[in-house]
Amino acid sequence: MANFLAFPKNFLWGTAASAYQIEGAAQEDGKGTSIWDVFAHQEGRTYLGHTGDVAVDHYHRYAEDIGIMRSLGLNCYRFSVAWTRILPDGRGQVNAKGLDFYDRLVDTLLENHIEPILTLFHYDLPQALQEKGGWPSRDTAYAFQDYAAVLSEHFSDRVTWWITHNEPIVTAMMGHLSGEHAPGIRDLVCTMAATHHLLLSHGLAAQAIRAGARRDLQVGIALNLNPVYPARDCDEDRAAAARYDMLLNRTTLDPILLGKYPQELLDLAGPFLPTIHPDDMEIISTPLDFLGVNYYTRAVVQHNPDVPLIELNDVRPTDSSYSQMWEIYPRGIADLVLRIWNDYHPRQIFLTENGVCVPDGVDFDGQDRDSRRIQYLQDHLAELHKVFEAGVPLIGYLVWSLLDNFEWALGYDKRFGLVHVDFQTLKRTIKNSGFWYRNVIRDGGFTPQEFYREIGVNGDAKGS
Ligand code: GCO
Fold first, then answer.
1. Test site for ligand 1: of 15, 46, 294, 412, most ligand atoms within 8 A of the Cβ
2. How many CB atoms lie within 10 A of CB 305?
3. 317-360 pLDDT, tens per residue?
4. Whole-prediction pTM
5. Euclidean distance between CA atoms 310 and 159, whole angstroms
6. Any catalytic annotation for residue 167?
7. CB-based contact 274:192 (threshold 8 Å)
8. How is residue 76 annotated by DSSP?
């Protein structure tokens, strides 16, 4: 029989979410308009024109949702603050009703012994700042610094855990290069400028959060990182993998943890970077208490001289398993965390997102039998357990997400929740994965089991 995999007593077990994806109440209590409010309403931007206007109505149902968290035994919960609820135009006058909502949220979490983990920015930039240039403009970084000071001043008496940005490379790339996310720009110069200013704003905010704090805080950032593997065992593909790793991972890791951009990035895209001021790299590399890692999948790439600039393309291994969005590759989480530890030695590592979208729904008897999700979470946690054994200071794990929610351009078509949400009635139903996670938290670990085994086209059982 397999062994019980035990996690430390003080391990942080929780879930993660973001404001626009769950709150709804897009026009309520003095909230300003964000770039996602605008973008989702533009024709053709999201699946079937879905928007976050109502989302899963967490703004009104937060108490019910915290009740669910408590019933699952979560000891922490990561959420993001909508900048436009606090400062409707991005800067200037503070909207007291916006602070009130997050006061109610934070206080109710604490009453239920759930540690709040506050993310300052999860893609929903105030539209007023977009109109002044958005992230490609350096001024936005200073506006973010002021916003961080307001939040720290108000919440640092109760909130210990702070995350400046969620996945800045996604904001830069999907918002400014592929245009799949708000603000829907497609321009390399804007992308590089956004990258630098997002990083700068991270450092400025980290400093502002600590400066306004009334006690010791834990300040970090959440990066989406994908370990990159060569498609074939040859020098060209290995070089392509190193190049892609540099773009996806080192573009943010190196400045934040080493205080410099990778030389290869400067060689490749240097002319597209904005002016870097003398102190910028020092600000960007302000020491952090933890590094947040969001992991979902790996990348596999091959050399391709026909692709401009990067000369590579990604491939989908045929002998693997897939969710509705990505390859399922549990080993990647251990490879990634070990690599980050070896190359960068952050003080602590926090797994700030991991999860999967698979088709699931409520059966006739009211159960949601999402065994593929349970298998995914179990296999990733089992890999993470190895990382402990290697001595990496891993402090917590957050499932994306508690509730099914608005998956950006994919709208409500993709479900990531431990809790099913009927998007018509907004009824919440805990899925089997939610009950499984509750047991893991209660027991401080689990004995690996088989919940779901895929059958390949030739009828053989497939390993995950
Ligand atoms: C992101 C975000 C989340 C996503 C999640 C699933 O990765 O874009 O952090 O908002 O919903 O990662 O794709």
1. 294
2. 8
3. 998 999 999 999 999 999 999 999 999 999 999 999 999 999 99
4. 0.98
5. 42
6. yes
7. yes
8. E
